[in-house]
Write a structure and sequence with these properties.
With 359 residues, the chain is mainly alpha-helical. α4 runs antiparallel to α14. The protein starts with a helix and ends with a helix. The longest helix has 27 residues.
Length: 359
């Protein structure tokens, strides 16, 4: 045997793991069930199915197609604003002014067009600018002052509530705006914001389509765009996000402006559905938007959530609100049901989170 051959080290092949060899728990892939449970919208989907089945049994009229269309319509009027509110919560902030901001946009469009005898589209565009300005103000105040968004938007809520009532009384002499159904541009605006169409003989409101389209767009933004990454980053830790180049100021202000955009859209729907607006409405609705987002899996601390979960959250609210009516129960129980739903959703989300992270 040569010297070279003697110098070669012996090569040993490790034995292949047998069928009974355990894998390291830190590297083992989680099961499909656990990966599904890790999704924030899974818990609310199961809850929505349970609520639907409950009222399907307890309220037989729900089985009718027109009744379900009403449930979906009610859900859409909640969900249209809940989606941007959910994005804002993922970004780590709240907006308590979203409910009265809906009425502010409708009042602006109605009074400006009617009092100045202008085409209603002038009022619509002016209302959009006002809504975006309110969102910009909220975001700018939060970013520049460092105050909690809860306090900033609570102040905005009180200001808008007072302005809505005072300005409406000053301009119209009443607590409601004048009927604008005979004004130029009304029919075109109604066709966009408040029309309906038939599916199988059932009248379906256009807001249901907008609701689902907005949810699809928001989901794409969150999961497939750089802006979506920014939202999660600033909600998780804004200082760390800023350190890696995320434009924190732009992201937070734009999220508040998105809430303003959602409030404007719903405000236009209400205006062109009922032709007039009550200035005192909108108080307390912001809690429903936030609750639907929380039920949908958005964490109160920010940095986690989805746009699909709040869709199911809004559906649960609409289902309960209309289901109580179809069941013939006292509507005073609605808020009690909402409280149970909210607590139940929080507990389910906690269980889902612990189950998904348990080895």
């Amino acid at each position: 045997m040569s010297m070279a051959q003697q110098a070669e080290p012996a090569v040993t092949t490790p034995p292949a793991p047998g069928p009974g060899t355990d894998k390291d728990g830190r590297t083992a892939q989680r099961s499909l069930a656990l990966r599904l449970l890790a999704r924030p919208e899974v818990g609310v989907f199961l809850g929505a199915v349970a609520v639907y089945i409950f009222f399907l049994v307890a309220a037989p009229p729900v089985r009718d197609g027109s009744s379900m269309a009403n449930v979906l319509y009610q859900s859409s009027t909640i969900g249209i604003v809940t989606i941007p509110v959910a994005l804002l919560m993922i970004g780590g902030e709240f907006d308590l002014s979203s409910g009265v901001a809906v009425i502010t946009s409708a009042l602006t469009a109605s009074m400006l067009a009617y009092q100045l005898s202008m085409n209603v589209w002038v009022g619509v565009i002016a209302a959009l600018l006002v809504s975006l300005a309110v969102g910009f103000f909220n975001g700018w105040m939060v970013v520049k002052t460092g105050l909690p968004s809860f306090l900033v938007t609570l102040g905005t809520f009180l200001m808008l509530q007072g302005i809505n009532l005072a300005v409406t009384k000053l301009v119209t002499g009443n607590v409601a705006t004048d009927n604008i159904s005979d004004m130029d541009g009304f029919d075109q605006a109604k066709a966009i914001f408040a029309s309906s169409f038939e599916v199988g003989g059932v009248n379906v409101k256009i807001t249901i389509v907008y609701w689902l389209v907005f949810a699809a767009i928001a989901t794409w933004v969150l999961l497939r765009t750089k802006y979506g990454n920014w939202i999660f980053a600033v909600g998780g830790n804004k200082d760390s996000a800023r350190a890696v180049g995320v434009p924190v100021t732009f992201t937070k202000i734009s999220l508040f402006m998105l809430v303003g955009l959602g409030a404007w859209f719903l405000g236009m729907h209400q205006l062109f559905s009922f032709n007039t607006v009550q200035s005192g409405e909108g108080v307390g609705i912001e809690l429903i938007y936030i609750s639907a987002a929380v039920i949908g899996g958005c964490l109160l601390t920010g940095g986690a959530g989805s746009a699909i979960g709040p869709v199911f959250g809004a559906f649960m609210f609409g289902m309960v609100q209309q289901g109580i009516v179809y069941a013939g129960w006292n509507p005073d129980w609605f808020k009690a049901f909402l409280g149970v739903m909210l607590l139940g959703a929080v507990l389910i989300n906690l269980w889902v989170s612990r189950t998904a992270t348990r080895r």
